[in-house]
Amino acid sequence: MTYDNAGEVRSMARAHGFQMRLIPMNNTHHATMEELVIAKELSWMDQYPAVHEPEAEYKT
Length: 60
Prior knowledge:
The chain is an alpha+beta fold. The chain has one helix at 7-15; strands spanning 2-4, 19-26, 32-39. The protein has one domain (2-47).
């Protein structure tokens, strides 16, 4: 599934063991933005250069 690249969404996905990748998307105004792809296993997406995993924000 795809979803907005929001901190709350990333935290929830990590808490439940999902993988995430950012993909470029064009909105209705033709502006490029990034959305999250969320699934249990996304290693097959790593072959595409435009796809990357979002940086994690970890508190220590």
